[in-house]
Amino acid sequence: MYDINLPYCKVAFVKKNSTLFDVSTTFGTRLLVLVGNFIVSIITARLLGPEGKGLYAAISVIPGLVLAFSDFGIGHSAAYLVGRKIHRQEDIASSLLLLWILTSIFAVCVAAIFYAFQFGSEYWLLLLIMLLVIPCDLGIRYMKGFLQGKERISAMNKLDVYRVLLNIACTLLLVAGLRMGVMGMVLTTFTISLAACILSTFYAGKEVRLKLRILKPISMQLFSRGIAFAAAILILQLNLRIDLVMLESMSTIYEVGIYSLGTNVSELIWQIPTAVGMVLFARSANSKTANEAVQRTARMIRMLVPVLFVFGIVFWGIMPIFVNLLYGKAYSDSIPVIRLLLPGIILMVIVKLLHSDLSGRGKPLLSMLLAIPSLIVNVAANWYLIPRYGAEGAAISSSISYSLACFLFIIVYAYSERISLRELLMIRGADISDIRRQIRKPGLVRKSTG
């Protein structure tokens, strides 16, 4: 993972710039993000209570959904074009700046309309601040897409570390210190987004000169290719967020708060596939052959999934202690909700990894087609179960939907890529040997003193 320099020797453990190195460092970063977000979730859950937490979840879900389609997949498209070296990097960066401005205007208008219908003039200041988050998050997505295409994984990891540290600091100051409640959470969200936007632009500027120019052919290619990425991401995000939207409209804020704790847990667990998926997308976009990308993805799934299943069993067992000790008895109703969500959360890891590979190789529409049936099932199940069982009904719907998505992704991916289910899912001795090949045996290499 890193080198240790001693006076007369150099001990190297993992080859830099290898997939294992990038996954290892990104995984370490995600663990830090996991711990940081976990700390923040405990602080906010205890200080806001189920109602306050439910209100924050309700007003923050709309920007997330709007961003899922209003970025038009341009960040992913940029990563693909940069990785494939289809155009000059300076021209791609210039086109990104132009599209950033245009899509920000569009996204803010759409989110404002949604807010007007859902909340009216209530909470107008909170909603206004959340609208300002949207252009910042779009900038982050576009600049990270450029960095991903350049395989600047370390810069992306640094950005995530700074974000989680700032998240903890702002939460402690505004929510815990000044007791600003939901307003403190909204201001924290905006501060993090603004700072991350500035920093991601700075990192991209170190790679290439950022200059706003109108390059219509490249802008159109970024947009047209990005539509496919956006469509896939939108369907996947809808599947992950539609439960909160329907729960808010069909139940109470308390039920939303109880359920949002389950979504917090899912987002914490999904930090792992997010880390691996980020590397897989970059590697797949730069792969010379499809088989190389498929074998890399299968190897990652084989090594990650058994660990996650064991973790899921243990986590299911300790759930009452986990919730009551860390979040308090006010959230005891979240225990069955999280348990019902957990099987689907674990299976969704496979979906996220397969989607990252397919998108990195320019096949996002396949992901979209595979995700549509599970979204339909999710909406139908929520419509039936939420009025009867509240948050638990939403959890059941989500697990059913995620399980269906996992089944479809596995079957179609294995068939289309001509890989057996055993090769895709069952860990092999060759996987361990491959890790050993990438890890150098600790040894002493005499350094020149001349």
For the largest beta-sheet, the strand count, sense and barrel status come to: 2 strands, antiparallel
Number of helices: 16
Uncertain residue segments:
1-14, 441-450
Secondary-structure element order, as H and E?
EEHHHHHHHHHHHHHHHH
Distance between the termini: 28 Å
Q: What is the β-strand count?
A: 2
Which secondary structure elements does this structure contain, and how are they paired or packed?
Blueprint: E1 3-6, E2 9-12, H1 19-70, H2 74-84, H3 89-119, H4 124-149, H5 153-177, H6 181-207, H7 216-250, H8 253-269, H9 271-286, H10 290-317, H11 319-326, H12 334-360, H13 364-389, H14 391-416, H15 421-425, H16 429-438
Antiparallel strand pairs: 1-2
Helix pairs in contact: 1-3, 1-4, 1-5, 1-6, 1-7, 1-8, 1-9, 2-3, 2-4, 2-7, 3-4, 3-7, 4-6, 5-6, 7-13, 7-14, 8-12, 8-14, 9-10, 9-12, 10-12, 12-13, 12-14, 13-14
How would you describe this structure to a colleague?
The chain is an all-alpha fold. The chain has 16 helices and two strands. It has helices at 19-70, 74-84, 89-119, 124-149, 153-177, 181-207, 216-250, 253-269, 271-286, 290-317, 319-326, 334-360, 364-389, 391-416, 421-425, 429-438, and strands at 3-6, 9-12. The protein has a two-stranded antiparallel ribbon. Helix 8 (253-269) packs across helix 12, helix 9 runs antiparallel to helix 10 (290-317) and helix 12 (334-360) runs antiparallel to helix 13 (364-389). The longest helix has 52 residues, at 19-70. Mean pLDDT is 82; it is low at 1-14 and 441-450.
